[in-house]
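Progress against Task 2.4 (sequence-to-structure conversion) is shown through the following example record, which the project officer requested during the mid-term review.
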Amino acid sequence: MIKLRLKRFGKKFEASYRIVATTSTSRRDGRPLEELGFYNPRTDEFNLDTPAVIRRLQQGAQPTRTVRRILEKANIFEQLGAS
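Structure tokens generated for the chain above:
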């Protein structure tokens, strides 16, 4: 199963995350299938590749709880329903 989840990077105590599509059995910081965006929890800033995220969701990818919250903030699910 393909999951949309966060991949940690950055300095210690100053983590940032990339939103990636990866298989559910791979490691958190392993090689992703595709990088879909960026999330900075310190500033609550995010940047998404919207067409790629929608394409992955249509293919059946399952987001984690945190990624689902980010996608809801970006109104991805409304765009998914409209297309």
